[in-house]
Amino acid sequence: MLAQTHSCCPYFFRQAISLVFILSFACACGYRVRSSAGNLPYGVQSLGIPTFRNLTGQYKIEQIITEALLKEFSFRTRAHVNSSDSGVDAVLLGEIRNVSSVPVAFGSPNDDTQTFGSAYMITVQMAVKLLRVKDSVVLWENDNFLYRERYVLNSSVRDFFSEENPALQRLARAFASGLAAAILQRSGP
């Protein structure tokens, strides 16, 4: 019986080693989403995304939006992406034109005397254009991007945490993804 155990151990050992080898090879072979990176218009090897202009009263929204764009374009293109508008082939310029937050669901406290907004919809309107630096040609433009994100308001004063900033961050990621897809699809090979 002992001999039988020894004879099957090498088989399982070889199988385990083979599995480890295959898994390590698959993990190390470099397959990533970045390999399917999109292309910017012909001749654009570097992209500058300066901080968007904020024409609203919303605090730091321009930083949230611009940071999401820098990450998205860095991930989805082969071009060098930075936050400068000089020393690059093209510049992505944008302005945040309007931000509004309106209640979309209502609740009432335990005593049923007052009603309050329990869920809100934040809406952000932006204008964006991709400009080639050497001749100031507009390569891509959309003057009316409109993005919305829902968030819930916690009614407990003791446990209150504003969900507006996390909603703005989700909105910024969705906007960056949609903008990158629109520009890269339009300007593909």
Structural shape:
flat
What is the CATH fold-level name of the largest domain?
Rossmann fold
- Say which CATH homologous superfamily of the largest domain is assigned: ABC-type transport auxiliary lipoprotein component
The rounded Rg comes to: 25 Å
SSE run: HEEHEEEEH
CATH class of the largest domain, named: Alpha Beta
Mean pLDDT: 80
Low-confidence stretches: 28-36
**What percent strand?**
25-35%
Describe the structure.
The chain is α/β, with parallel strands linked by helices and 189 residues long. It folds into 2 domains: 1-31; 37-186, 3-Layer(aba) Sandwich (Rossmann fold). The protein is 35% helix and 31% strand. The termini are far apart.
